[in-house]
Specification:
- It contains 5 helices and 4 strands; from the N terminus they run H-H-E-E-E-H-E-H-H.
- By secondary structure, it is α+β, with helices and mostly antiparallel strands.
- It has one domain (about 5-150): 3-Layer(aba) Sandwich (Endonuclease, Chain A), CATH 3.40.960.
- A hairpin with a 4-residue loop joins strand 2 and strand 3.
- It starts with a helix and ends with a helix.
- Bound molecules: zinc ion.
- Zinc ion (ZN) binds near residues 75, 83 and 125.
């Protein structure tokens, strides 16, 4: 039939990604953001600011004095290479290709801008927060430690 298993899965990914984006836009935070922040707090990594608008790309979490900026990226919108959740939708393939590619280009651009301002930039994937939350905390801790030794 026309609707293969893959097609169905693609539709689900799009619906899910859209839902998350809407949640993010309505100033409600996404679950991975909340979960990571809670874990950082519990680990004693505090004093961060969230959704810092004055920095390029509006990083999700920023440790200002130590200049560490963290993005929690949605696996669909940023084409996560790790978990296999990212699949190009077959329908409107050109549109999606351009959309995702431009997201990826912007991610690279934003990272470069922040690094020019002296920031260490950390990208944490949605799937990492879900499956390896403590590893994410360790990465943040390392980034903060690396900065203080400079
Ligand atoms: Zn992922």
């Amino acid at each position: 039939m026309a609707y293969s298993k893959t097609t169905k899965r693609t539709f689900l990914n799009v619906a899910e990604a859209t839902r998350r984006t809407m949640a993010a836009n309505s100033s409600t935070e996404t679950k991975p953001e909340v979960n990571l922040r809670k874990a950082l707090w519990a680990a004693g990594l505090r004093g961060y600011r969230k959704n810092v608008r004055k920095l390029p790309g509006k990083p999700d979490i920023v440790f200002g004095p130590r200049k560490v900026a963290i993005f929690i990226d949605g696996c669909f919108w940023h084409a996560c290479p790790h978990c296999g959740r990212f699949v190009y939708p077959k329908k409107n393939a050109d549109y999606w290709h351009e959309k995702i590619e431009s997201n990826k280009r912007r991610d690279v651009e934003v990272r470069a801008q922040l690094e020019r301002q002296g920031y260490t930039v950390l990208t944490v994937w949605e799937c990492e927060v879900k499956k390896h939350l403590q590893d994410c905390v360790i990465r943040v801790r390392q980034a903060l430690g690396a900065q203080t030794q400079v």
